[in-house]
Specification:
Elements: E1 7-10, E2 21-27, E3 30-34, H1 42-51, E4 59-63, H2 69-72, H3 75-80, E5 84-87, H4 92-96, H5 99-109, H6 113-117, E6 128-130, E7 136-139, E8 142-148, E9 157-161, E10 164-168, H7 192-203, E11 209-212, H8 221-242, H9 249-266, H10 271-280, H11 283-298
Parallel strand pairs: 3-4, 4-5, 5-6, 10-11
Antiparallel strand pairs: 1-2, 2-3, 7-8, 8-9, 9-10
Helix pairs in contact: 7-8, 9-11
Amino acid sequence: MTKSNIITLDLNFMGVSGAIACYAIPHRHGVALIECGPGSTLSALQEGLQAHGYTIRDISHVFLTHIHLDHAGAAGWLAQQGVQIYVHPVGAPHLQNPEKLLASAARIYGDQMDSLWGEFLAVPEEKLTILQDEETVEVDGLSIQAFDTPGHAEHHLVYLLDDICFSGDIGGVRLAGTRHLRLPMPPPEFQPEKWRDSLRRLSDQKFSRIAPTHFGIFSDADWHLRSLSELLDQTIAWIETIMNSDLPVEEINAQLSEWTSRRALADGVSPQQIQAYESANPSWMSGYGIQRYWRKFRNG
């Protein structure tokens, strides 16, 4: 499969280009999507499809890497249009009944919920397909294989198609034109030990390109995975250094922001790119994830 067979749709999240991607894969009878983005970006999704000659009615499948709102928020609306939604077994109940998921998100985002994420509708049971580890779905000649990859979230899948890995968030955040990686570490399920195991597992697979949801298709998958593994080790060491005492989340965020900024400058990231990285992966959210990880799994 050539690179032109995969269409990268920029969802222009909060007016920022290059923050959240949705990948469209054409087939004989329509198009399959990897991710669908939040409800707040549905108009951008439709415009992106139309630019390539497709409409919402042409979408046959949506493969979700996980159910966080920036990846899966529009799934319920698409399911109501007849689209089949594919998801990890642990994530499926929360798509059918999203009350707990939305309540948890509301504690983080407060009165910004609607403006950030838009409407999150339930997915009817008949439009929901649960994928098991290493299960392959055939879509009009396309073979899309799912791999269970916890660490960012317990309910995380990556998808392999020919020479490309759609890595969701377990593949980190890397914006176009850079060799700068970040780890998205939101609560409640950030666990770096499981993340390391997931990266080892991906390294055993055969693909040359990697496509994180944040953002774009990169042709140096070996470098990407190796560098991400190194960053994970550095992050664990950094967490162990600052969490000798039970820091308040505000202090974690301040130190994380400083450390992240130093890394970005060393990698030659421009101020405009730093803003885009913050849109794709807000540093303050990772502070909460680090604190929960430390209290629950390391200091519990």
